[in-house]
Design goal:
By secondary structure, the protein is an alpha/beta fold. It starts with 11 loop residues before the first helix and ends with a helix. The protein is globular, with a radius of gyration of 20 Å. Helix 2 packs antiparallel against helix 4, helix 3 packs antiparallel against helix 6 and helix 5 runs antiparallel to helix 6. Strands 1, 2, 3, 4, 5, 6, 7 and 8 form an 8-stranded mixed β-sheet that branches. Helix content is 40%, strand content 13%.
């Protein structure tokens, strides 16, 4: 059941003012490059005069959310995303992972240096997955860079992050949209949760059998064959969030989010990091009418 929050007992004409004045909690989900849509939601909230008080996120939602928590204007955040994500995929020999993770680590260090989460302008939290204990790890204190690098460590794509004797990987493995983590600390807050994960994962375009030759798949991808096989990164990234999709459904059904924005971002690849402005615009166009309707319903 949805909680009977204090603001809901206000006269209707005051609710819209209360929503703006109360500075809602923003929860940003993971989804690779689709997460640039969060930038559009952030811009829409700013234009509607809704200031955010607390930010939480997973994976790319954690990275962009940390910059939002530092009160970075929407335009500057878009410029930063264009600059830092331009060449973020530094592929390596896939013994530990497909990419080294050095470029994203250096980008995070350039943005935050040795700052701690508690030093950000607004309260912030992000989620990673403790691979050693099979539990979610909530980062509310400590190094911003360490927390963000752990929260965005896609298993198999990026190397895990050491944390004492444990290893941390992407929070999307267990909780890709951490509404519950922030609801526990701000029970009376108005939570806006933004989900950018694709509704469906990769599908079988052809029956390619029970075994796959990498060389044949490579030739096919270059137009020299006919067998359509799923890409390794698409399979890894979708596999990572399969379990957390059910967790998300439970949280939404339980009313933990006051506004759940499941954005329609069909056609945007989770690894297409080259179109920040276009994806941000898609997020803006998808979110703005729903945000306006939400505010209007509270007036």
């Amino acid at each position: 059941m949805r909680a009977n929050l204090p603001w809901m007992r206000l006269p209707h004409r005051w609710r819209r003012i209360a929503l703006r004045a109360a500075r809602p909690v923003l929860v940003l989900g993971g989804g690779g490059a689709r997460g640039f849509a969060h930038l559009g939601v952030y811009r829409a909230l700013q234009e509607l005069g809704v200031e955010i008080d607390v930010v939480a996120g997973t994976s790319i939602g954690a990275i962009l959310g940390a910059v939002m928590a530092d009160r970075t204007p929407p335009e500057a955040l878009v410029e930063m995303a264009q600059r830092e994500f331009a060449a973020v995929l530094d592929y390596t020999i896939p013994v530990v992972s497909l990419i080294k993770g050095d470029r994203i680590a250096r980008a995070l260090e350039a943005a935050f240096g040795d700052r701690r989460i508690e030093d950000l302008w607004s309260p912030f939290a992000c989620i990673s997955t403790d691979l050693t204990t099979s539990r979610p790890h909530v980062h509310r204190l400590g190094s911003v860079v360490h927390a963000l690098r752990a929260s965005s460590s896609i298993p198999g794509v990026m190397p895990p992050v050491p944390h004492g004797d444990d290893l941390l990987v992407d929070g999307g493995v267990l909780n890709n949209l951490p509404i519950d983590a922030i609801r526990h600390t701000t029970p009376a807050g108005r939570v806006v949760a933004v989900d950018v994960a694709p509704v469906r994962g990769p599908g079988a375009r052809e029956d390619y059998g029970l075994s796959v030759s990498g060389w044949q798949a490579l030739r096919a991808s270059m137009g020299r064959g006919s067998k359509a096989t799923p890409g390794i990164t698409a399979v890894l990234m979708r596999s990572m969030i399969v379990a957390s999709q059910r967790e998300r459904d439970h949280q939404v059904a339980d009313g933990l989010a006051d506004l759940y924005l499941d954005l329609d971002l069909r056609g945007i690849s989770m690894l297409d990091f080259g179109d920040v402005i276009g994806v941000a615009q898609r997020g803006y166009e998808a979110a703005m009418p729903r945000l306006e309707a939400w505010l209007a319903a509270s007036s």
